[in-house]
Amino acid sequence: MAELDGPSRNEAGKPKTHRSCVGERKMRKYLCASRKISDRGVQRIIRSIVQEPMTTCGELQKDLELAAARRRRSRQAVRSRGGTGVTMAASERSFTGPLGKTKTVEVPCPVRKPSEPPRRRPSPSIPHSTASAPLKRTQVPCWCGAGETTQQEAEQMMVQLIFWVQVDPTGLGRPSLPGDTPTNSMAVPMMLMCLVQQLTDGRGQGAVLKYKKLSSWCVQKILEHVQRDGTAVLENVSLEGAELPGCQGRLQNPGHALEAGWFLLQYTTQWGDKELQETAINKFVELPFQYGWDKEHGGLFYFLDADGHCPTQLEWSMKLWWPHCEALVAFLMAYSQTKRPGLLERFSQVYDYTFSHFSDDQHGEWFGYLSQDGKVVLDFKGGPFKGFFHVPRCLYMCERILDDLLDNKA
């Protein structure tokens, strides 16, 4: 298919080619009708997110091919054994922590369908006599293929994580120090909610229902971070959901709030909760963008103080790659669910800054750390914190959402 308005040109004036996209004209027409932006802006979004693979990591294709090969081997193993998989049911398990405290927590429990022949049972579950003990990998006998073995290992690890989060958090590597005030960090319930979504994705309604109670608990804990009569999302609150004193209590992380926002939007899609959808968009997508966007230089601040003081984090004014990835996903997902033109405008605003500052057009991938005025501070593409995660997830999810918008409009 021909380009929309002929080949675009780079800064040197040379023609720049793009891959064609099926339904490109329909996409342009759809976006133009949904919001008041220029036709050129629509072209830029389509070409850069859907068509140009240079913005992704060079290893993405290789990893996708390896993942596809693993899935093929898993399906072959299932066919060779004649297995149909296992169903999931909720159960309760009592945990005893290092201080002798016992608590009963609802955890995943794999069970065999009545119609299935008996299979070899996995090795005994990992003991939970101490929360801080290192978790050992156990060799689980294959029930019905490599895919189920991996799932069982993940669910065993999930049992340990639930214990760490709901019973004794010392196993998370954050031991409580004398005199330290216990806090509810938003990172913990939101990432546990993300794990639930990953474990249940594509595994049927039974698995989803089994984790519903845990998901609801995560939602409740996330919502406790909306403070000051709904005008601020704070990174840390007390265990009772109240604002903490000092700089720890005033800390804001716009990127985390935006990421929690689209986690909540996924939950509302699954359960049809319209009231929570409005809360997610208003308080966890639009509000963090309003106070987190640098109106002078553009981009999202890394940390902020709710009272306007200087945060104690030395990197607070820097622009990091991952908050912008989360903002792209959050605004595009919010728009796909509501079709509000203003949300797509925000997406375009974040997109313009992100791809003009983080993306390395010459060598591929993204830089991760910029100064407040948008200049590259650290030129490495990977390190202890920036791995192969936020960028490919963002690009993959944005492309899927755009494809869905195009398919539903066609």
The shape is: globular
Largest beta sheet: what is the strand line-up? Answer: 11-12-13
Radius of gyration: 23 Å
The whole-number mean of residue pLDDT values reads 77
CATH topology of the largest domain: Glycosyltransferase
Question: Which stretches are low in confidence, meaning pLDDT under 50 for 5 or more residues running?
Answer: 1-24, 32-37, 49-58, 84-102, 107-113, 118-145
Strand % is: 5-15%
Count every helix, treating DSSP H or I runs of 4 or more residues as helices. 13
Q: What's the CATH architecture of the largest domain?
A: Alpha/alpha barrel
Helix-strand sequence:
EEHHHEEHEHHHEEEHEHHEEHHEEH
Can you summarize the main beta sheet? 3 strands, antiparallel
CATH class of the largest domain: Mainly Alpha
Terminal Cα span = 17 Å
- How many individual domains? 3
Which bin fits the share of residues in helices?
A: 40-55%
Structural class: mainly alpha
How many beta-strand segments?
A: 13
Brief rundown of the structure:
The protein is mainly alpha-helical. Helix content is 48%, strand content 11%.
Structural commentary:
- With 410 residues, this protein is mainly alpha-helical.
- The protein folds into three domains: 8-51, no CATH class; 85-178, no CATH class; 181-410, Glycosyltransferase, CATH 1.50.10.
- Helix content is 48%, strand content 11%.
- It is built from 13 helices and 13 strands.
- The protein has helices at 24-34, 39-51, 60-81, 146-166, 187-200, 204-210, 212-223, 246-250, 254-271, 274-292, 321-338, 341-357, 390-409, and strands at 8-9, 15-16, 87-96, 102-111, 183-185, 226-227, 232-233, 236-238, 251-252, 304-305, 319-320, 369-370, 376-378.
- A three-stranded antiparallel beta sheet has the order 11-12-13.
- A hairpin with a 5-residue loop joins β12 and β13.
- α11 packs antiparallel against α12 (341-357).
